[in-house]
Design brief:
Blueprint: H1 4-14, E1 18-20, E2 23-25, E3 29-31, H2 40-49, E4 55-61, H3 62-72, E5 89-94, H4 98-110, E6 116-121, H5 126-131, H6 142-156, E7 161-166, H7 176-185, E8 191-194, H8 208-212, E9 223-226, H9 232-241, E10 246-249, H10 252-255, H11 259-267, H12 278-313, H13 319-326, H14 332-342
The protein binds flavin mononucleotide.
The site of flavin mononucleotide (FMN) has 22 residues, from strand 4.
Length: 345
């Protein structure tokens, strides 16, 4: 049995800060991009709680960005907050055309001054794969992934360019080692691997063994593992058991935005802060609501908050009643009434 101080030394060695280009990510626990969720309001909540070494936006269509820019000299809604908010911040983009991605990457690096440009090679949604031949569709051709990364790296320099992938497109075509090597060879600054294939969608569990097999095949860049992490202990365990330089958390961070803070403490061998009380969680939800309404107004904000509110209540006693009722709110009054009355206590 190790003493607390031994535990502390052992765990702090487990999770050294990681480098993405010249950026130091400490702790090496990253907040994942999630379309429809990781907007400015969510990022602010996570930022206020602390513990995420790097935060990411939702994925942004590079083609859509250029169209909006050409037509209205505007930028996509999904870039809400990006210009002003604290750094470090990664913006994720998707497309299959190197020139389109390079043009948007350069804009993000120069005009938006983002810390990292991340390219999506993992999205399994039909709209992105079959229709737009992008996201995880591209995993079938590691050289093509390499060509895209090389072009974006050239356009964004010195801003680092990273990539997020899955293990492969199907169980029969697991090729994450080849893809990760192509990304490294093309000048990518880090690779994040979600331990499922595109075919898996979210079925089964993430295969962390497969993720860690990539590590010895990379020479220079950090490997960030992703999939199914839902607790501070889970994060410590991932570093202990698998050869990864960092971890990324997505879904669990929606119902527990304080998980990053807990993971950070656990990795340092410090006392893990308890979950906020229910009253504190309710306040957090209301602060989230305030930020969303500031941007979208009360009516649209109330509709948008339905899904976030359901996440906050997830897994708690009384969550079902709350979810049923909050999923129907249309106005500020209704939202506040349901939160006051039904948010789990
Ligand atoms: C609602 C939702 C939206 C997502 N959107 C994105 C996205 O925009 N870009 C991306 O790379 N991955 C996206 N993902 C995948 C997550 O980033 C992550 O890889 C996946 O959820 C596994 O991690 P987890 O088990 O911690 O949730 C999304 C996942 C969910 C559930």
């Amino acid at each position: 049995m190790s003493s607390p101080s031994e535990f502390s030394t052992a765990t702090s060695r487990l999770a050294l800060p990681l480098r993405i280009g010249s950026l130091v990510i400490d702790p090496p626990v990253l907040q994942a991009p999630m379309a429809g969720f990781t907007n400015y309001a969510y990022r602010q909540i996570v930022r206020q709680l602390g513990g995420a070494g790097l935060q990411a936006t939702e994925m942004i269509s590079a083609r859509g960005f250029l169209e909006i820019d050409a037509r209205d000299h505007e930028f996509p809604d999904r870039l809400w907050g990006v210009k002003e908010e604290p750094r470090p911040l990664a913006v994720q983009i998707w497309d299959n055309d190197p020139e389109t991605l390079a043009a948007v990457g350069a804009k993000l690096a120069r005009e938006f001054r983002v810390s990292v440009v991340d390219i999506n090679f993992g999205c399994p949604v039909k709209q992105v794969t079959q229709k737009a031949k992008s996201g995880s569709y591209l995993l079938q051709w590691p050289e093509r992934v390499g060509r895209i990364v090389a072009r974006v790296v050239g356009a964004c320099h010195p801003t680092p360019v990273t990539a997020k992938i899955r293990l492969g497109s199907t169980r029969d075509a697991i090729n994450a080692i080849d893809v990760a090597q192509a990304i490294e060879g093309a000048g990518g600054a880090a690779v994040t691997v979600h331990g499922r294939t595109a075919q898996d969608m979210f079925r089964g569990s993430a295969d962390w063994q497969r993720i860690s097999e990539i590590k010895p095949r990379l020479k220079r860049i950090p490997l960030i593992g992703n999939g199914d992490l839902a607790s501070a202990e889970g994060v410590v365990e991932a570093f202990r058991r698998y050869a990864v330089d960092g971890v990324m958390i997505a879904r669990a961070g929606l119902s527990k935005p304080w998980l990053f803070r807990q993971a950070k403490a656990a990795l340092r061998g410090e006392i893990v802060p308890p979950d906020p009380t229910n009253a504190e969680q309710r306040e957090m939800l209301l602060e989230h609501y305030r930020l969303v309404c500031e941007r979208f107004g009360q009516d649209r904000g109330s509709l948008l908050m339905r899904k976030y509110a359901c996440c906050y209540a997830q897994g708690r006693r009384g969550a079902r009643t709350f979810r049923d009722n909050v999923s129907r709110v249309r106005t500020r009054e209704e939202f506040l009434e349901v939160v006051q009355r039904d948010f789990p206590r």
